[in-house]
Amino acid sequence: SAFDHHLVGLARYRQGDWPGARQAVEQAMALRDRQFAEDYRLLALIEFQAGNVELAREHAVAAKTKPDVWSTHAQALADEWELVTGH
Predict the structure, then answer these.
(1) Mean pLDDT across the stretch 29-46?
(2) Quick count: other Cβ atoms within 10 Å of Cβ 15?
């Protein structure tokens, strides 16, 4: 399911596997009929850690235009974005 792929992406992000994390989150997004902020926030973190700062910022901006599905998880990712990037 899309949720499972998102969780795999989060786990791979935590392990420092940026390509694997990106692939899992992109698979989650492909399985959904709507786009959600959590996926974009996680992609932003992945891209930032991978050194793709401009793409990370684009994903962070996109996250602000999408609905949150899991509010607690969404806030945790938003907090981590601020901690990691200083923004």
Answers:
(1) 92
(2) 10
